[in-house]
Amino acid sequence: MTGFFDSGFGGLCILEAFLRECPGEPFVYLADNSNCPYGNKSQAEIIAIADRLTRELVERHRCRIVVLACNTATAQAIDHLRAAYPHIKFVGLEPAVKPAAQSSKSGVVGVLATRGTFAGRLYRNTSCRYAGHVKVLTRVADDWVELVERGITDGPEAERAVADHILPLIEAGADRLVLGCTHFPHLKPVIERIAAGRAEVVDPSPAVARQIRRLLV
Ligand code: DGL
Description:
Strand content: 15-25%
Shape: globular
Number of strands: 8
Number of domains: 2
CATH topology of the largest domain: Rossmann fold
Structural class: alpha/beta
Bound molecules: D-glutamic acid
Distance between the termini: 12 Å
Oligomer: single chain
């Protein structure tokens, strides 16, 4: 059994990619809507939440693979979880800065995520290691999380919120937009429409699904 959790509906894009990669594979998905958003919570709070959800997946649902379908929880809690549950295989999410930096032609990459993700060690290490040769522009887009939780993924309100964050990045030369929060791929059609060929969206969901499949064998 493979277990997934996120602060709400965001991680469903990871689950969807997983089911495309491994159709029929049994899973449990915990949408922790009551604690959403995670983005501004302290590390201690996120560790406590992630520990409780992992315990439920492991003890109640007998999961042997736990997917943190959430960049913020990964940034703040995956080290704790790996130490606390050494017999469990964990898969985490982190902003796909490496492929974006490697494929950018303009040399400018935009990364959208929560405050908690940007504050984590993983993000700092990855961007130092792989994005030294490009300019990385960051945007905290917490309001997108709230929109997606309200089920608003298209229409004028979504368009305004998307434009507010991506147009400054595109105007500053970004030709890659990294979706560093699992809520954001739900807005991908709007993002692509507004970016209109000026910037490509980098969404790690398919690569994460392939990584889970490799762990299943
Ligand atoms: N979907 C999550 C992430 O990938 C969390 C967003 C939130 O709850 O603030 O970061």
